Amino acid sequence: QESPPLYTKEEVYSHRSPETGIWVTLGSEVFDVTEFVGLHPGGPSKLMLAAGGPLEPFWALYAVHNQPHVRELLAQYKIGELNPEENVPPTLETSDPYADDPMRHPALKVNSQCPFNAEPPPELLTENYITPNPIFFTRNHLPVPNLDPDTYRLHIVGPPGGQSLSLSLGDLYKFPKHEVTVTLQCAGNRRSEMTRVKEVKGLEWRTGAISTARWAGARLCDVLAQAGHQLSETEAHVCFEGLDSDPTGTAYGASIPLARAMDPEAEVLLAYEMNGQPLPRDHGFPVRVVVPGVVGARHVKWLGRVSVESEESCSHWQRRDYKGFSPSVDWDTVDFDSAPSIQELPIQSAITEPQDGETIEPGEITVKGYAWSGGGRAVIRVDVSLDGGLTWHAADLDGEEQPPRKAWAWRLWQLQASVPAGQKELNIVCKAVDDSYNVQPDTVAPIWNLRGVLSNAWHRVHVHITP
Ligand code: HEM
Ligand code: MTE
Question: By the 8 A CB rule, do 288 and 296 touch?
């Protein structure tokens, strides 16, 4: 019996386009699925996310593949095996502060490897109302700390005359467990659209710096109360410090107003669970802050210390970043002290399907996307145009109805439309409205700012129609 051809991972990786052929692996087996891509019941674009690499991380998200008939189908395309000699254990480069970062899901579109910043591709982002943990967007400023849950302690600084707390994970579990579905969005989401107007400083996020999870943990108000804090000072802030730090020992930090922290209705959490699992390392294991309705930057991960101060956190990320300015302000004239730190975010929406530049068939099409607003304001409507904004259709809103003033999570939406044969292109636009009747600006230029934050203009996608 002949032994099967052996391939290296690199050879497999070089086969990820129609020109080279499309290869994937499962376990040690190699498959050429070029002919199957167009037949895939889940659509070609999803299969292509795995092109040139292993199927396991994707099939872990879609259990539909754990069936004998799927395996039998795949077996027809087998062309060989992975070369076993290649499996040399990686050596740990100890001088690299990022060497100990966790493994990441290959579907993530990486905007920066070190520190790790990545977003899920649009075709996966709105597949699920709750974003699966492995593809939740990740925004790190520093290396991911590797914390031991047994020795982990959270320090809560008490008020004068009160009591400081040093809480183990076990201590935190003793507080009433509170669960809430919250969408997290980075202030830099959709920055790449601002860059097209004029250069900005920051990572090139597309539409994916936003994700939704079911978070569980102790309420911050319960923990602060135990330490003796009260809502007495009006000009007070709760400062958070992460256990991630740069080589000089400076930790990530941020703050929120004490009034929000102490309000039980605001549901601010010291979260230790994400979608029923312990927090993944990238998302703050073992404990992070979750501040519903507030910009991602305040949801401090790997939380080490909480204190109540008369001023905002002195952290760079509170005082010298994550603020909005007029389009006329540049790096020579900017005065960071003149603008408030971003807390609640404005109304936002984006199209995830179809994608810009795609070519689609005439006939029935589905336009999909997400919409969310800050401060617990509910999305009440999403308007979609197929002709660049001349005429509009109201999209169907999916997802959970949420209590008034506590709409912490996004709504996914879709619109079914028919495209007449002979039409050459579509200029798809979406815009959302929240329950304060806040709307999105129609273009990016008037909201351009030097840091590229708060990018929430109408989202526009241009698609071609096959003749
Ligand atoms: C559905 C095969 C890769 C996402 C299916 C089904 C088959 C299949 C046979 C239908 C299953 C059934 O309904 O019984 C394959 C093969 C793949 C592949 C052979 C690789 C060569 C992927 C990847 C993804 C994916 C990489 C995601 C990133 C899906 C989804 C469905 C599906 C979402 C469900 C579609 C629906 O709603 O009916 N796939 N798949 N597949 N696949 Fe895949
Ligand atoms: N917390 C710490 N300790 N370090 C960080 O770099 N990044 C912040 C915030 N909390 C950050 C942090 C920013 S800017 C965002 S948008 C969110 O975490 C991202 O959370 P995620 O990576 O879980 O999506």
Answer: no
Q: Could you tell me if 175 and 285 are in contact, meaning their C-beta atoms sit under 8 angstroms apart?
A: no
Statement: residue 86 has pLDDT above 90 = no
The closest alpha carbon to 300, from 271, 330, 333, belongs to 271
Cis peptide upstream of residue 278 (ω within 30 degrees of 0): no
C-alpha distance from residue 207 to each of 44, 159, 173, 371 (Å) = 21, 42, 35, 11
Query: CA dihedral defined by 264, 183, 340, 460, rounded to 10 degrees?
Result: -150
Instruction: Choose one of 189, 255, 299 to mutate for the ligand 2 pocket test, by most ligand atoms within 8 angstroms of C-beta.
Output: 299
| The token pair that represents 147 in the structure block | 């914390």
Per residue in 317-349, pLDDT (tens digit) is 999 999 999 999 999 999 999 999 999 999 999
Residue keyed to tokens 């312990």:
278
Residue 65 falls in the annotated catalytic set: yes
Q: What is the pLDDT of residue 91?
A: 61
Query: DSSP state, 322?
Result: S
Residue list, ligand 2 pocket, CB within 6 Å? 136-142, 184, 186, 242, 244, 252, 282-283, 296-297, 299-302
* Ligand 1 contact via 417 beta carbon (within 6 Å): no
Contact 187, 321 (CB under 8 A): no
Closest C-alpha residue for ligand 2 atom 17: 296
- Hey, what amino acid is at 149? P
> For tokens 């010291």, what's the residue?
270
pLDDT at 352: 98
DSSP string, 122-163: HHHHTT-SSPPGGGS-EE-SSPPP---TTT--EEEPPPTTS-
Is the predicted pLDDT of residue 198 greater than 80, yes or no? yes
Q: What's the whole-model pTM score?
A: 0.92
Using CA atoms, how far apart are residues 22 and 16, in angstroms rounded to an integer? 5
Q: ipTM score of the complex? A: 0.91
Active site residue 322: yes
* CA distances (Å), origin 45, targets 41, 354, 414: 11, 11, 18
Question: 3-state SS of the chain: helix, strand, coil percent to 5?
Answer: 15, 30, 50
